[in-house]
Design goal:
By secondary structure, the chain is α/β, with parallel strands linked by helices. The chain contains eleven helices and nine strands. It has helices at about 1-35, 75-85, 85-100, 115-120, 125-135, 155-170, 185-190, 200-205, 210-225, 240-245, 265-270; strands at about 40-50, 55-65, 70, 110-115, 145-150, 170-180, 195-200, 230, 250-255. Bound molecules: ligand C2E and magnesium ion (MG) (3 copies). This is Phytochrome-like protein cph2.
Length: about 280
Protein backbone atom coordinates (compact mmCIF):
# COMPACT_ATOMS: atom_id res chain seq x y z
CA UNK A 1 0.00 0.00 0.00
CA UNK A 2 0.89 3.66 0.03
CA UNK A 3 2.49 3.38 3.43
CA UNK A 4 5.00 0.69 2.54
CA UNK A 5 5.73 2.39 -0.80
CA UNK A 6 6.44 5.61 1.05
CA UNK A 7 8.70 3.77 3.41
CA UNK A 8 10.72 2.15 0.65
CA UNK A 9 11.11 5.47 -1.16
CA UNK A 10 12.23 7.00 2.09
CA UNK A 11 14.73 4.24 2.68
CA UNK A 12 16.12 4.77 -0.81
CA UNK A 13 16.64 8.51 -0.42
CA UNK A 14 17.30 8.60 3.29
CA UNK A 15 21.11 8.63 3.54
CA UNK A 16 21.76 11.47 1.08
CA UNK A 17 18.80 13.57 2.16
CA UNK A 18 19.57 13.10 5.78
CA UNK A 19 23.15 14.23 5.48
CA UNK A 20 22.13 17.29 3.45
CA UNK A 21 19.54 18.14 6.09
CA UNK A 22 22.04 17.62 8.87
CA UNK A 23 24.54 19.96 7.17
CA UNK A 24 21.79 22.54 6.86
CA UNK A 25 20.78 22.21 10.49
CA UNK A 26 24.37 22.52 11.65
CA UNK A 27 24.91 25.59 9.48
CA UNK A 28 21.70 27.13 10.77
CA UNK A 29 22.79 26.58 14.37
CA UNK A 30 26.17 28.10 13.60
CA UNK A 31 24.50 31.09 11.95
CA UNK A 32 22.43 31.64 15.11
CA UNK A 33 25.60 31.42 17.22
CA UNK A 34 27.37 33.90 14.96
CA UNK A 35 24.49 36.36 15.36
CA UNK A 36 24.69 36.10 19.15
CA UNK A 37 28.46 36.27 19.35
CA UNK A 38 29.21 39.11 16.91
CA UNK A 39 30.66 36.50 14.54
CA UNK A 40 30.39 38.38 11.24
CA UNK A 41 32.66 40.93 9.64
CA UNK A 42 32.17 43.62 7.04
CA UNK A 43 34.45 44.44 4.16
CA UNK A 44 34.07 47.61 2.13
CA UNK A 45 34.61 48.07 -1.59
CA UNK A 46 35.28 51.56 -2.95
CA UNK A 47 33.22 53.15 -5.71
CA UNK A 48 34.87 55.81 -7.88
CA UNK A 49 33.16 58.71 -9.63
CA UNK A 50 34.28 58.76 -13.27
CA UNK A 51 34.04 62.52 -13.63
CA UNK A 52 35.74 63.60 -10.42
CA UNK A 53 38.12 60.61 -10.49
CA UNK A 54 37.80 60.10 -6.79
CA UNK A 55 36.27 57.62 -4.37
CA UNK A 56 32.74 58.71 -3.50
CA UNK A 57 31.42 55.74 -1.51
CA UNK A 58 31.99 52.24 -0.18
CA UNK A 59 29.72 49.19 -0.39
CA UNK A 60 29.54 47.08 2.77
CA UNK A 61 29.90 43.34 2.02
CA UNK A 62 29.38 40.74 4.71
CA UNK A 63 31.96 38.05 5.53
CA UNK A 64 31.65 35.09 7.87
CA UNK A 65 34.95 33.84 9.24
CA UNK A 66 33.61 30.34 9.90
CA UNK A 67 35.32 28.56 12.84
CA UNK A 68 36.11 25.37 10.88
CA UNK A 69 35.31 25.99 7.23
CA UNK A 70 37.32 29.19 6.92
CA UNK A 71 36.07 32.46 5.47
CA UNK A 72 32.58 32.10 3.99
CA UNK A 73 31.34 34.21 1.10
CA UNK A 74 27.79 35.62 1.26
CA UNK A 75 26.68 33.32 -1.55
CA UNK A 76 27.46 30.36 0.76
CA UNK A 77 25.20 31.43 3.62
CA UNK A 78 22.85 34.28 2.62
CA UNK A 79 20.40 31.91 0.87
CA UNK A 80 20.07 29.78 4.04
CA UNK A 81 19.80 32.93 6.15
CA UNK A 82 16.96 34.06 3.89
CA UNK A 83 15.13 30.73 4.03
CA UNK A 84 15.31 30.64 7.82
CA UNK A 85 14.53 34.32 8.34
CA UNK A 86 17.90 34.79 10.06
CA UNK A 87 18.72 37.41 7.43
CA UNK A 88 16.53 39.81 9.43
CA UNK A 89 18.80 39.96 12.53
CA UNK A 90 21.91 39.60 10.33
CA UNK A 91 20.75 42.47 8.12
CA UNK A 92 20.08 44.59 11.18
CA UNK A 93 23.62 43.94 12.43
CA UNK A 94 25.04 44.88 9.00
CA UNK A 95 23.16 48.19 8.96
CA UNK A 96 24.16 49.17 12.49
CA UNK A 97 27.79 48.12 12.09
CA UNK A 98 28.24 49.76 8.66
CA UNK A 99 26.64 53.06 9.78
CA UNK A 100 28.86 53.11 12.88
CA UNK A 101 31.91 52.63 10.67
CA UNK A 102 30.90 55.17 8.04
CA UNK A 103 30.63 58.09 10.49
CA UNK A 104 34.41 57.81 10.87
CA UNK A 105 34.91 58.59 7.15
CA UNK A 106 34.95 62.05 5.58
CA UNK A 107 31.50 63.54 5.31
CA UNK A 108 31.45 63.45 1.52
CA UNK A 109 31.87 59.66 1.43
CA UNK A 110 28.71 57.57 1.08
CA UNK A 111 27.84 54.10 2.34
CA UNK A 112 25.95 51.41 0.41
CA UNK A 113 24.29 48.47 2.20
CA UNK A 114 22.66 45.44 0.56
CA UNK A 115 19.10 44.69 1.62
CA UNK A 116 17.62 41.23 1.12
CA UNK A 117 14.13 40.79 -0.36
CA UNK A 118 13.20 39.07 2.90
CA UNK A 119 14.07 42.22 4.87
CA UNK A 120 11.99 44.24 2.45
CA UNK A 121 8.91 42.20 3.25
CA UNK A 122 9.16 43.16 6.92
CA UNK A 123 7.66 46.53 7.78
CA UNK A 124 9.97 46.80 10.81
CA UNK A 125 12.78 47.54 8.34
CA UNK A 126 11.95 51.23 8.47
CA UNK A 127 12.51 51.37 12.23
CA UNK A 128 15.73 49.36 11.89
CA UNK A 129 17.12 51.87 9.38
CA UNK A 130 15.92 54.81 11.43
CA UNK A 131 17.59 53.39 14.57
CA UNK A 132 20.88 52.64 12.80
CA UNK A 133 21.04 56.24 11.59
CA UNK A 134 20.08 57.70 14.97
CA UNK A 135 22.46 55.51 16.93
CA UNK A 136 25.44 56.20 14.67
CA UNK A 137 24.70 59.81 13.86
CA UNK A 138 25.20 59.12 10.15
CA UNK A 139 23.46 61.64 7.91
CA UNK A 140 20.66 59.78 6.05
CA UNK A 141 21.84 61.36 2.77
CA UNK A 142 25.06 59.35 3.06
CA UNK A 143 23.24 56.01 3.14
CA UNK A 144 22.18 54.10 0.05
CA UNK A 145 20.32 50.79 0.13
CA UNK A 146 20.93 48.27 -2.65
CA UNK A 147 17.97 46.19 -3.72
CA UNK A 148 17.98 43.64 -6.52
CA UNK A 149 15.19 43.82 -9.04
CA UNK A 150 14.19 40.26 -8.14
CA UNK A 151 13.32 41.58 -4.70
CA UNK A 152 10.44 43.38 -6.34
CA UNK A 153 8.86 40.41 -8.09
CA UNK A 154 6.56 39.83 -5.15
CA UNK A 155 5.78 43.53 -5.36
CA UNK A 156 3.22 44.69 -2.84
CA UNK A 157 1.83 47.98 -1.63
CA UNK A 158 3.77 47.30 1.54
CA UNK A 159 7.09 47.22 -0.37
CA UNK A 160 6.26 50.32 -2.35
CA UNK A 161 5.13 52.19 0.77
CA UNK A 162 8.24 51.10 2.64
CA UNK A 163 10.55 52.31 -0.14
CA UNK A 164 8.83 55.71 -0.17
CA UNK A 165 9.02 55.93 3.62
CA UNK A 166 12.75 55.13 3.53
CA UNK A 167 13.34 57.70 0.80
CA UNK A 168 11.46 60.33 2.77
CA UNK A 169 14.15 59.91 5.43
CA UNK A 170 16.67 61.11 2.85
CA UNK A 171 18.12 57.62 2.27
CA UNK A 172 18.71 56.70 -1.38
CA UNK A 173 17.79 53.47 -3.17
CA UNK A 174 19.92 51.70 -5.78
CA UNK A 175 18.78 48.89 -8.05
CA UNK A 176 21.49 46.22 -7.80
CA UNK A 177 22.53 43.69 -10.46
CA UNK A 178 20.44 45.53 -13.03
CA UNK A 179 19.61 43.53 -16.13
CA UNK A 180 19.79 40.07 -14.56
CA UNK A 181 16.23 39.86 -13.21
CA UNK A 182 12.79 40.20 -14.68
CA UNK A 183 10.96 43.27 -15.98
CA UNK A 184 13.79 45.56 -14.93
CA UNK A 185 12.56 48.45 -17.03
CA UNK A 186 9.05 48.26 -15.68
CA UNK A 187 10.38 48.36 -12.11
CA UNK A 188 12.26 51.56 -12.86
CA UNK A 189 8.95 53.21 -13.65
CA UNK A 190 7.10 51.83 -10.65
CA UNK A 191 9.68 52.17 -7.90
CA UNK A 192 11.55 55.21 -6.60
CA UNK A 193 15.22 54.67 -7.55
CA UNK A 194 18.23 56.94 -7.37
CA UNK A 195 20.81 54.69 -8.98
CA UNK A 196 21.20 51.73 -11.32
CA UNK A 197 24.03 49.29 -10.70
CA UNK A 198 24.86 47.57 -13.99
CA UNK A 199 25.56 43.90 -13.36
CA UNK A 200 29.11 42.62 -13.80
CA UNK A 201 27.97 40.22 -16.54
CA UNK A 202 27.43 43.20 -18.90
CA UNK A 203 30.60 44.99 -17.81
CA UNK A 204 32.99 42.06 -18.21
CA UNK A 205 34.43 42.27 -21.72
CA UNK A 206 32.50 45.44 -22.54
CA UNK A 207 35.66 46.69 -24.25
CA UNK A 208 35.83 43.55 -26.42
CA UNK A 209 32.32 42.45 -27.31
CA UNK A 210 30.00 44.80 -29.18
CA UNK A 211 26.90 43.22 -27.60
CA UNK A 212 28.10 44.07 -24.07
CA UNK A 213 29.20 47.53 -25.21
CA UNK A 214 25.75 48.18 -26.66
CA UNK A 215 23.95 46.96 -23.54
CA UNK A 216 26.08 49.02 -21.15
CA UNK A 217 25.53 52.07 -23.39
CA UNK A 218 21.79 51.45 -23.39
CA UNK A 219 21.57 51.19 -19.59
CA UNK A 220 23.79 54.25 -19.12
CA UNK A 221 21.51 56.24 -21.47
CA UNK A 222 18.50 54.99 -19.57
CA UNK A 223 20.10 56.35 -16.41
CA UNK A 224 20.79 59.72 -18.03
CA UNK A 225 17.21 59.87 -19.34
CA UNK A 226 15.74 59.02 -15.96
CA UNK A 227 18.11 61.38 -14.17
CA UNK A 228 19.68 58.63 -12.05
CA UNK A 229 23.32 57.70 -11.63
CA UNK A 230 24.73 54.46 -13.04
CA UNK A 231 27.48 52.32 -11.54
CA UNK A 232 29.36 49.74 -13.59
CA UNK A 233 29.97 46.73 -11.31
CA UNK A 234 32.90 44.36 -11.60
CA UNK A 235 35.30 46.54 -13.60
CA UNK A 236 38.51 44.50 -13.65
CA UNK A 237 40.59 46.15 -16.36
CA UNK A 238 41.55 49.58 -17.60
CA UNK A 239 39.88 48.75 -20.93
CA UNK A 240 36.59 48.02 -19.21
CA UNK A 241 36.82 51.27 -17.25
CA UNK A 242 37.40 53.26 -20.44
CA UNK A 243 34.55 51.53 -22.24
CA UNK A 244 32.00 52.13 -19.46
CA UNK A 245 33.24 55.72 -19.17
CA UNK A 246 32.68 56.21 -22.91
CA UNK A 247 29.24 54.60 -22.54
CA UNK A 248 28.30 57.35 -20.09
CA UNK A 249 28.35 55.51 -16.75
CA UNK A 250 28.68 57.74 -13.69
CA UNK A 251 30.89 55.53 -11.56
CA UNK A 252 32.80 52.26 -11.35
CA UNK A 253 33.32 49.54 -8.78
CA UNK A 254 35.53 46.50 -9.21
CA UNK A 255 38.84 44.80 -8.71
CA UNK A 256 40.54 47.26 -11.10
CA UNK A 257 40.02 49.90 -8.44
CA UNK A 258 40.13 47.65 -5.37
CA UNK A 259 38.81 44.41 -3.93
CA UNK A 260 36.63 44.69 -0.83
CA UNK A 261 38.91 45.71 2.10
CA UNK A 262 38.70 45.81 5.90
CA UNK A 263 37.40 48.79 7.86
CA UNK A 264 40.95 49.64 8.94
CA UNK A 265 42.16 49.58 5.34
CA UNK A 266 39.36 52.02 4.42
CA UNK A 267 40.65 54.50 7.00
CA UNK A 268 44.18 54.18 5.58
CA UNK A 269 42.91 54.59 2.03
CA UNK A 270 40.94 57.72 2.91
CA UNK A 271 43.97 59.20 4.67
CA UNK A 272 45.93 59.00 1.42
CA UNK A 273 46.18 61.74 -1.13
CA UNK A 274 43.15 61.32 -3.45
CA UNK A 275 45.52 61.46 -6.44
CA UNK A 276 47.24 58.29 -5.31
CA UNK A 277 44.22 56.18 -6.06
CA UNK A 278 42.85 58.16 -9.00
CA UNK A 279 42.52 56.04 -12.14
P1 LIG B 1 26.57 42.50 -4.90
O1 LIG B 1 25.82 43.37 -3.98
O2 LIG B 1 26.28 42.62 -6.35
O3 LIG B 1 28.11 42.79 -4.59
C1 LIG B 1 29.14 42.75 -5.54
C2 LIG B 1 29.87 41.43 -5.49
O4 LIG B 1 30.80 41.39 -6.57
C3 LIG B 1 30.70 41.22 -4.22
O5 LIG B 1 30.77 39.83 -3.96
C4 LIG B 1 32.08 41.74 -4.67
O6 LIG B 1 33.14 41.21 -3.90
C5 LIG B 1 32.11 41.21 -6.08
N1 LIG B 1 33.01 41.99 -6.94
C6 LIG B 1 33.27 43.31 -6.89
N2 LIG B 1 34.11 43.69 -7.85
C7 LIG B 1 34.40 42.57 -8.56
C8 LIG B 1 35.24 42.31 -9.71
O7 LIG B 1 35.88 43.19 -10.28
N3 LIG B 1 35.28 41.02 -10.16
C9 LIG B 1 34.58 40.02 -9.55
N4 LIG B 1 34.70 38.79 -10.05
N5 LIG B 1 33.78 40.24 -8.47
C10 LIG B 1 33.69 41.49 -7.99
P2 LIG B 1 30.48 39.24 -2.51
O8 LIG B 1 31.09 40.12 -1.47
O9 LIG B 1 30.87 37.81 -2.54
O10 LIG B 1 28.91 39.37 -2.36
C11 LIG B 1 28.05 38.64 -3.20
C12 LIG B 1 26.63 39.08 -3.03
O11 LIG B 1 26.15 38.76 -1.71
C13 LIG B 1 26.42 40.57 -3.16
O12 LIG B 1 26.36 40.95 -4.51
C14 LIG B 1 25.12 40.76 -2.42
O13 LIG B 1 24.03 40.45 -3.25
C15 LIG B 1 25.22 39.71 -1.32
N6 LIG B 1 25.63 40.37 -0.06
C16 LIG B 1 26.85 40.76 0.36
N7 LIG B 1 26.79 41.34 1.58
C17 LIG B 1 25.49 41.33 1.94
C18 LIG B 1 24.77 41.80 3.10
O14 LIG B 1 25.32 42.39 4.02
N8 LIG B 1 23.41 41.60 3.10
C19 LIG B 1 22.76 40.99 2.06
N9 LIG B 1 21.43 40.81 2.14
N10 LIG B 1 23.40 40.54 0.96
C20 LIG B 1 24.74 40.72 0.90
MG1 LIG C 1 25.33 45.25 -3.90
MG1 LIG D 1 25.60 43.93 -7.63
MG1 LIG E 1 25.95 40.72 -7.73
Amino acid sequence: GAKSYGRSVLRYFEPKMESAMRTRRVLETELRLAIESDGFELNYQPVMDLEANRIVSFEALIRWPHPTMGPMRPDQFIPLAEETGLIVPIGEWVLREACKEAVRWSEDIGLAVNISPVQLRDRRLFQVIHNALKESGLAPERLELEITENALIAETDLTLGLLHQIRDLGVRIAMDDFGTGYSSINYLRKFPFDKIKIDRSFVTGSDQHSESTALVKMIASLGIGLGVRTTAEGVETCGEMESVRAAGCSEIQGYFLSKPITADAVMKLLAQDPQSYAR
